[in-house]
Structure to design on (389 residues):
């Protein structure tokens, strides 16, 4: 009776408490990191197999679209790390289970305290990059032509 | 007070898909349980409404269902707990528990759940001869306390069907079966912990647990389910009971 659609739908519909939302955020951030790593490994391997393509794709990744993606990636890594530590500790110290809701909130707080300023900093860096390019008469949104 | 109920209905002989049935009950006492309301509804408005219930006092574990989004026992859930304090109208949404096939309305096929239960050998194993005086095998108070919490399980399936790992894969033995395994693994008189650990240490055993705590929150007997699972994980990791 278990299906993927049931699992995805009910992961959002079921009224679990903080533990369920932590798990959901952990899973989504984990999948996001996995997606990034897959692209990253493939793209880096291209430096060996197709250097011209590699140079091109590195420029493409400077596009603000990917810049914003990078901010999400930083957020995903931060939350995944903090909540991962929380789960690991709770698995090794079962007797601390009654603090799980508190630690879930703590992981979120720690994540927000670090992510908000870092996110703003990274966002402003995208702005600086775009302003510089605009000064040179080109656009940071423009995708460079593919070599060959 | 007035209660507006929204119930997930499904009759496999008539309906292609489940649908929401909407009902209104007047003159409800806030101290009535959800099971009281369902029985009243069945008696007064729609006799075809199908549900399981037996003792109505939170002991038999027949009426686990999903009330306002989360698993609870209908007989232990009072209307006053579901509405805002002082409000004269309460909305209650009822669905069958998840991950098990719906047979009709709120009744699900519990067989896969009990198959997992049986897989952990939920019975006392000790082939050594009983004490010479013919009386019970004695145990210290500390040894008995070690597994006291997990003796409280009533097999209602509220925990197992609240677990996203179980929704994702029905082969996962589930929190309830692990609670039963815990009850015997940590019993100093039991002689089959290795066989039970083999089952719960399998691919579809305790390692499917993602420490989500939905089971602990759902348990109507307030068993510390996630803690019990973590203790079994610990035994598997360290080899020490």
């Amino acid at each position: 009776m278990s299906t993927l659609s049931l699992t995805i739908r009910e992961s959002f519909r079921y009224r679990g408490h903080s533990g369920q939302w932590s798990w959901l955020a952990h899973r989504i951030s984990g999948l996001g990191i996995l997606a990034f790593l897959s692209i990253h490994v493939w793209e880096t391997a291209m430096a060996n197999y197709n250097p011209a393509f590699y140079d091109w794709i590195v420029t493409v990744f400077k596009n603000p679209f990917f810049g914003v993606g990078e901010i999400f990636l930083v957020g995903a890594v931060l939350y995944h790390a903090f909540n991962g530590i929380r789960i690991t500790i709770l698995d090794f110290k079962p007797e601390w289970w009654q603090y799980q809701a508190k630690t879930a909130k703590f992981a979120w707080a720690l994540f927000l305290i670090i992510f908000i300023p870092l996110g703003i900093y990274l966002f402003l860096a995208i702005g600086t990059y775009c302003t510089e390019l605009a000064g040179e008469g080109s656009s940071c949104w423009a995708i460079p032509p593919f070599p060959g | 007070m007035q209660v507006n109920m929204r119930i997930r209905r499904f009759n496999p002989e008539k309906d292609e898909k489940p649908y929401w049935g909407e009902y209104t009950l007047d003159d409800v006492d806030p101290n009535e349980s959800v099971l009281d309301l369902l029985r009243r509804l069945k008696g007064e408005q729609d006799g075809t409404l199908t549900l399981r219930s037996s003792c109505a006092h939170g002991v038999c574990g027949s009426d686990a269902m999903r009330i306002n989004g989360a698993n609870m026992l209908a007989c232990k859930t009072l209307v006053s707990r579901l509405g805002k304090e002082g409000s004269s109208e309460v909305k209650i949404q009822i669905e069958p528990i998840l991950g098990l096939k719906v047979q009709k309305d709120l009744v699900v096929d519990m067989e896969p759940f009990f198959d997992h239960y049986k897989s952990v050998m939920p019975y006392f194993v000790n082939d050594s001869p009983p004490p010479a005086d013919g009386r019970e095998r004695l145990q210290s108070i500390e040894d008995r306390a070690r597994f006291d919490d997990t003796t409280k399980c009533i097999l209602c399936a509220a925990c197992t069907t609240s677990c996203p790992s179980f929704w994702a894969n029905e082969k996962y033995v589930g929190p309830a079966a692990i609670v039963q395994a815990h009850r015997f693994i940590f019993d100093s008189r039991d002689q089959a912990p290795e066989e039970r650990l083999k089952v719960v240490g399998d691919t579809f055993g305790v390692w499917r647990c993602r420490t989500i705590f939905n089971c602990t929150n759902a348990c109507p007997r307030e068993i510390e389910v996630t803690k019990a699972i973590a203790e079994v994980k610990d035994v598997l990791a360290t080899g020490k009971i």
Observations:
- Chain B has a mean pLDDT of 96.
- The beta strands of chain B are 2-9, 19-25, 64-67, 70-73, 89-95, 102-104, 107-108.
